Amino acid sequence: MAFSRTLEHESPSLVFTVHRKQPELVAPCKATPHEIKILSDIDSQAGLRAQIPIIQFYCSEPSMEGKDPVEIIRNAIAQALVFYYPLAGRLRERPDGKLMVDCNEEGVMFIEADADVTLDQFGDALEPPFPCFEELLHDVPGSEGVIDTPLLLIQVTRLKCGGFIFGLRFNHAMIDGVGIVTFMYTLSAFSHGAQDPPFTPIWRRELLTARDPPRVTCPHPEYDQLTDPNVTTLPTDLQQHSFFFGDSEVSTLRSLLPESLSSATTFQILTAFVWQCRTKALRFNPNDDVRMMCITDGRAKFNPPIPNSYYGNCLVLPAAVTTAGKLTEGTLGYPVGLIKEAIEKVDEEYIHSVADFMVTNGRPLFTTVRSCIVLDTTYAGFRGVDFGWGKALYGGLAKPGAGAFPAVNFHVPSQNEKGEEGILVLTCLPTQALKAFAKVMDEVLESNQTN
């Protein structure tokens, strides 16, 4: 597929009307403990103080005729919050910057809505950016902060065809992607009539709390605090786009690697290719450092492993670092090797070192200068969340970026308009750089296509 053509021939944006009821707070359906719980030092870092949106599209299901997804999901939330009761609370901040949650049963924000549109009108390939997205997951004024606001915002929008859209926004300081997936599967279980959750939620934030005394034992270039004298204002002409990589594109890229990198994963290969091409498109000074930070789940790195039902942040951002010149002039194998090495250095000690780094360095933001962050959600399981209407047609991250930082790419499993399975790379760049990015990717793929 020519990526440049998908940019040039984007369909006119679909316009429809969404009628929303007043937002309400959904509290646990039974009394839960009132207490203060301390978050971890991984949770409390500046880079996780952001709201992250998820969106799920569901088609009509004849066996659910007469049943209301709004009521079913609202009731499931109230049941799930009995077990995930800290999510019904509000975050507070200590003077030292550490976060805690006031478990007060205030509840999560819920919006009931109806839209005068059918799923078919969205087209054959559901992919971000979605038309009228702000109407499908409404940022209720005053709710978008991190401190003292609802930790979840959920909107269920009925469609004319009998399907519906489930939108969820989560406070990343409180819960990570693995945690939100387990919460969504808990909602699914209660939607089907379960009396108990499929997982026992685990708090245990002390597992990711700094040691006493803290000792930083690993280098953490992902938190280097840099400035760029060449950038005086942030770009305002940012454009979101999803690029679909099927088996053909992945095979072509894999054929460019030496035998020594035959164990490289699809995620590592796509990430390296995107990093190389976006760096060319952004035309950085060849001598300047560039970074690709790969969000890495740390649960399996512990001994014993931390279960997936731990819903705090158990992630780190190992960084591959090189100069723009070396990256753009080298073969694809060069960045694949750097990314592979960065990810493979993550172990339990590395994660403890990050927590210690946070408390000794004022909980800094990750490096934003000439940086890109990427998260692989291809095996996260968002599409498998079933509220009774079957699996989602599209499920997962609603858009690229995190908070005010636009350069966060997401890999999302999806189908193209032909029904072929593949990976969407959600990205956001200035408009002209996005065009150049697509062109560079096309040139590489077309000149190396394998039959």
UniProtKB/TrEMBL annotation:
Stated family: Belongs to the plant acyltransferase family.
The organism's place on the tree of life at top rank: Eukaryota
GO MF assignments: transferase activity
Keywords: Transferase
PANTHER family noted in UniProt: ACYL TRANSFERASE 4, OS05G0315700 PROTEIN
UniProt source species: Arachis hypogaea
Designated name of the protein: Benzyl alcohol O-benzoyltransferase
Database matches in Pfam families: Transferase
InterPro entries found in the cross-reference section: CAT-like_dom_sf, Plant_acyltransferase
